[in-house]
């Protein structure tokens, strides 16, 4: 499928899963009515709780996760491919959980899943602090989702700061990069647009980045601004700061056009590290 409409759903998730899912589904149905057949959701789409113990308590085994069942049913209803930004999934033998993205086909079956690799451990100005590695077990496997709309490289939020992951995806055949996020307002204001545009430009890929917005439990604040970006780095749609959805036409022929103009994927050279 060379041309299709993609959408990002932007939400303000809190600690009520049923309410979060209902709101996300409303925006997804509206996006589908606007023509979208690939619909992406943010990181932590079903739940944002404050504190590691609350996160662990609210996690489910993958096979029994009510949010995963919900999104599988929604994919069938909308006859669309869904990128479920991330759900919290228990890990056997671990007291930490996985922050796991699911790509679901229009038949309601999971095409692939990806566990966030890079953990956001940081102290910010003003006393704001994050220690993802205390609660989440990092993944160790990149995942290329082969979907009916093309091959999609899957990442989550903080992964965007590690460009080698996206280079590997582009060289493996990805024409689209999905980067769902719950980016903090502080770092979002400084870097969000620049990082995402860079990943698009340097790999000649579309970037689809669904984001959380607003204030969450624990006085967490996320940046919003879900983005759809073309391979030249042009922002096709920006979700601003409020819940809702954005759409843009994806023309995969644009990928090959841009890569012919700037053939950096073919110009890579091996070199000795310093």
TrEMBL record:
Q: Which InterPro entries match?
A: C-N_Hydrolase, C-N_Hydrolase_sf, Nit1/2_C-N_Hydrolase, UPF0012_CS
Q: List the GO molecular function terms.
A: hydrolase activity, acting on carbon-nitrogen (but not peptide) bonds, in linear amides
Going by the entry's taxonomy, the superkingdom of the source organism is recorded as Bacteria
Question: What SUPFAM superfamilies does this protein's entry cite?
Answer: Carbon-nitrogen hydrolase
> According to its UniProt record, what is one Pfam family this protein matches?
CN_hydrolase
> Is Hydrolase found in the keyword set?
yes
Q: Which keywords does this chain's UniProt record carry?
A: Hydrolase
Domain spans labelled CN hydrolase:
4-252
**PANTHER family assigned:** DEAMINATED GLUTATHIONE AMIDASE, NITRILASE-RELATED
Give the UniProt family note.
Belongs to the carbon-nitrogen hydrolase superfamily. NIT1/NIT2 family.
Q: What is this protein called?
A: Amidohydrolase
Tell me the organism. Answer: Thalassospira alkalitolerans
